[in-house]
Write a structure and sequence with these properties.
Layout lengths: L1 E2 L8 E2 L10 E4 L2 E4 L4 E2 L1 E6 L13 E6 L13 H4 L2 H9 L1 E2 L2 H10 L5 E6 L8 H13 L3 E6 L5 H7 L5 E5 L5 H8 L3 H14 L1 E8 L7 H12 L7 E5 L14 H11 L6 E3 L1
Parallel strand pairs: 7-9, 9-10, 10-11, 11-12, 12-13, 13-14
Antiparallel strand pairs: 1-2, 3-4, 5-8, 6-7
Helix pairs in contact: 3-4, 8-9
């Protein structure tokens, strides 16, 4: 048995078994990323899809994902890759792509407007070693790296990758401890610490998905945006609309009117607020 140090869970993993995220395994008494280089999704995306609005707008970025996640969001948009039964199938079918090959592929697509690589789709930090090794090569090729993350990782993990990451979009999914703990099986404090440190080292944008009846009050948005306003760098906030899916098909989609109102509230403190 060995202890995983990637996130606040600090899973004690028995030999041959996986941790909570489904991507880290104990082998030979050591915890390692079973999903290292095992790519389930690869696409050339607009940078705005990450979403990033104030980092190389109009460009494209080669986006790669694996499998596994250390949260349990019942509204997950990429549940097939993250923590559902379907994720087990993707785990078995994932193809190995070495860091060198992914970096070469990113460089090959430069002629189509590609500026680098984005680590996204599932939670990249449950396999942070691959992010680190690939991002280092992307930098050597004169290109940039983007991380799309839930921010649920310990600071030593962030320090491992931060020298090679140029921009992040981090989910700040809500602004109460109960929301994170009860709905997501997460830890808000861990995410806030992650964001604070990331904002010191690279370009950061944040995303908050508004779930009706959960994190949709003006009071919570006022608290969230007030905290973000205290961070360095005029961090942009993306306020996004929930649509019924996965384990939340019984909920109504977020009303456009509510989304716009919460954006108005956020703009009381923040200069860059976007709605999707």
């Amino acid at each position: 048995m060995a202890r995983c140090e990637v996130c606040f869970r600090h899973c004690e993993i028995k030999e041959g078994e996986r941790g909570f995220c489904g991507a880290r395994i104990c082998a030979g008494g050591v915890v390692r990323a079973e999903n290292y280089g095992r790519i389930t999704s690869l696409a050339l995306d607009p940078i705005e899809k990450k979403p990033l609005r104030r980092f190389h707008p109009g460009s494209m970025i080669l986006s790669a994902g694996s499998y596994g996640c250390n949260l349990r969001c019942p509204f997950c948009q990429n549940y097939q890759l993250s923590w559902s039964k379907e994720a087990e199938r993707f785990r078995d079918e994932a193809e190995y792509v070495a860091p060198e090959l992914l970096a070469e592929t990113a460089l090959r697509y430069r002629g189509r407007g590609n500026i680098g690589a984005a680590f996204t789709y599932n939670e990249p930090l449950v396999g942070y070693e691959f992010v680190r090794d690939t991002a280092r090569l992307i930098h050597k090729a004169g290109m940039v790296n983007v991380l799309v993350s839930n921010g649920t990782a310990e600071l030593p993990v962030l320090e491992e990758i931060l020298p090679y990451i140029d921009a992040m979009n981090i989910d700040l999914k809500g602004f109460t401890d109960a929301y994170y703990k009860d709905l997501l099986s997460g830890d808000r404090g861990a995410v806030m610490r992650f964001i604070e440190r990331a904002a010191q080292g690279c370009h950061v944008e944040l995303t908050t998905l508004i779930i009706p009846g959960e994190n949709d009050s003006e009071e919570e948005m006022r608290a969230l945006s007030g905290w973000v306003a205290e961070l360095p760098g005029n961090i942009p906030l993306h306020i996004t609309r929930f649509y019924p899916r996965f384990h939340m098909t019984d909920r109504e989609a977020t009303s456009v009117r509510l989304l716009r109102r919460l954006a108005e509230v956020a703009r009381e403190k923040l200069p860059y607020v976007y709605t999707v």
